[in-house]
Amino acid sequence: MENKTLDEESKLTKWVNEPSVTDLEADLLAARPIHQTHVTNTQKWLSKLAGELHVQPPKGRSQVQPKLIRKQAEWRYASLEEPFLSTNDLFDIDPVTEEDYDAAEENQILINYQFNTKIDKVSFINEYVRTAVDEGTVFVQVGWKYEKGERTVFEEIELSPTQAQMFVYSEVSKGNMSQEDAIALMQSGEPIKRTVKRSKTVAKYAEKRKALKEAGDYEALQKLPRNANPIRQHNRCKLTGRPRGYMRTFGISRVTFREMANQGLIPGVTKASW
């Protein structure tokens, strides 16, 4: 019993008839001549593929060796690569049982996605095909690369302008967001960005415009950017960017004002009733 236990502990695999080191060395020595023959044949083939001269031509004859084999191989590369690169669903995984259907579908989508996006598949297939044609044998290492890490997943929710405003105000009241960040978030729309940019341009060229006007140099005045003119500015709702119904007192449109007032979001404003 003790010898059997020691033998089981010394095994490196779960094979029933596990080969010994002596058996493996014998197999290696027996395979070396065949391997060397294969390497020699491969080297000869690669030299012919490169168009190298194997027979010295007679003196006075042309030394040019046409690379016909390479030409034929180049024609084959494209046709062999086409099946691999002509589709985004290269891998097809079939379930073994009905219980494996969902897992097989998920793994198929995952493997195809990783093959199409995580590696340079064009270079990989090109190298694979060229090695197969040139040398006759290709070894490809396949496996998973596991990485541990934490990831925060945010769920996208479509909110109306009013709901977005209520969310921002609630975050500000809770202290999770500063007023500056709230204003920047609500002003992230393209119309509002354009208005803010024009305001900065007007402020930048205000002194220069004033000096040119006083000097009467209207030709130089016309060379300034169009948006440097204050009349190019347009009042927009600070929250939604609406250009109509602007209320200067509050800096928002009448539609936004009514929605916020009905929800009690504007201090001191109440709905009149009589």
Give a description of the structure.
This protein is mainly α and 274 residues long. Among the domains are: 67-137, no CATH class; 163-234, no CATH class. Helix content is 54%, strand content 1%. It contains 11 helices and 2 strands. The chain has helices at residues 2-10, 21-49, 68-85, 101-117, 121-135, 161-174, 179-186, 190-204, 206-215, 218-222, 254-262; strands at residues 246-247, 252-253. The chain has a two-stranded antiparallel ribbon with strand order 1-2. α6 packs antiparallel against α7 (179-186). The radius of gyration is 38 Å and the shape is elongated. The relative contact order is 0.05. The mean pLDDT is 79.
Quaternary organization? single chain
Order of helices and strands: HHHHHHHHHHEEH
DSSP summary, beta strand count: 2
Share of residues in helices: 40-55%
Shape: elongated
Low-confidence stretches: none
Q: Please tally the helical runs, counting DSSP H or I stretches of 4 or more residues.
A: 11
Share in β-strands: under 5%
Structural class estimated from helices and strands: mainly alpha
For the report, how would you describe the main beta sheet?
2 strands, antiparallel
Average pLDDT, to the nearest integer?
79
Instruction: Measure the end-to-end span.
Output: 102 Å
* Largest sheet, spatial ordering of strands: 1-2
